[in-house]
User: Fold these one by one.
Assistant:
Number 1:
Amino acid sequence: MKKLFFLAFVAFAAAACSDDKEMPSPDTFVTVDFENVPASMLAGPTSYGDNCYEVMYKDGEPFIAWTDPASGLSIGIQLGLSWGASEETHEMTNGATFPSNWNIRSNPADKSGDWWHSYQNQCSVYNTASTDSANTEAGHSGSNFIVAYESTYLGKAGECTLPEGTEKTFVDMWVCNTSYDYGNITIGNAYCTPLKESNGWFKLVVRGYRAGADEPVAEDEIYLADYRSTAGFCLDKWTYFDLTNIKQQPVNRIDFHFEGSDTGDFGLNTPAYVCIDDIRLVK
């Protein structure tokens, strides 16, 4: 009997040690919080993000791409034929992920009416937890974050990529609506019907791709607004987003797509933007 008890104890202890080894420690992860993006690369000089467009090549340096030194994760503006262009160029209308620190409380005092939820304020996060006009705590942690934009007309999405041939496990991130989206979802404009009036919805779909692959291996989604029930909502603060399916395997890149109930002849009417911060990967 004592021998059986001893063997059972040894088996239990071995299993416990094995579980301890499999449990990730905090230093297993790297979090991309975008706080080390140079100020010159942040969307500007206004919350329209003038430096994300080709026209800025004439008068200033545009934002094209940035790579996080700790993780190797890159964000940037895709190369393509933007609306009405005759040759390929880096321009936000081709789909982009770009850094920003604008928030709803940093709007200039001379702006009124619907300016705060127009395309002129497309780089601002609608984060009601940010308490001042100096962009303090605009992001989930710190001031900086990224805005992901999908050109649903051109069929090109903003993305986050790792170096060619490398793969890592994307674990989770934090998301929040832009001011542009929040206003058009809740108030509407000439092109958008308020989703609350139509029992509508709007969601972000993140897709993960293995190195060299054109088709996603997994995807996860989160609703940015959903008025299909009496408990309807539109995100107005940073919200946790667990990449439940994508984190089941390492991937080389993720991209950002949008779906919604308010669609027309040219696709989605709701602006295809979202703010993202604190992307966590396994080292």
Number 2:
Amino acid sequence: MSPAIRIQDLTKHFGPLAAVSKLSLEVPTGTFLGLLGRNGAGKSTLIKMITGLMNPSSGTIEVLGQDVSSGSLDIKRRIGVMSEGTALLEGLTAAQYLRFIGRLHGLADELIDERRKELFEVLELAPAARTIIADYSYGMQKKTALCAALLHGPELLLLDEPFEGIDPITVKVVKDLLLGLSRKGTTLVLTSHALDLVEKLCPVLAIMNEGKLVASGSLEELKSEHGQNMTLEELFLELMGGGRSGELSW
């Protein structure tokens, strides 16, 4: 079986800045990968290139056995994306937005409504029927974006900061939902700065710094290389070179 994602020598330049630099990575089918890095490490840029939203400067990306540069709609039909921010059509209600997304994926209206009802129940998302997305709280918008990413039953799910701005109860629900998808064989790629959540969810990690892949493998493998008794936070800090003191002069 070919990997869900195969990346070879991937580079993305923005002027003189290399947001991603000569990155190579394979994500086996069915993996739950935690993609980590500081702000500006290149994680979101990498996800945008994997999904075909951004073209690389050089290198290749294969997703679900197909070259992303082909522009194949088949790839897009088989993946789900929750991008940074929410990127929603804010003049619609959540129900209208999911009907729109479902139709883009070729789903029948009856199936869209059936899945929407289940997603709303699981995520406790029950906005007033006429309230548009622009008037939702940030947490409700995040849950709407997650519903849209899951609606068509993707084989590959890419989630950029899915836990940002949601309450602790919803965090638990989303954790259970993602673990359930992983058990069913869905390939998941998750970025998050909540290292304690990543440590509990993701058995495989890829860690970026300044556009480069600095470590990848299972948490156990990385701990054996850097310190068996380390937490993920301690491992991350070591790979990033520690950090400055957080104290002020006054």
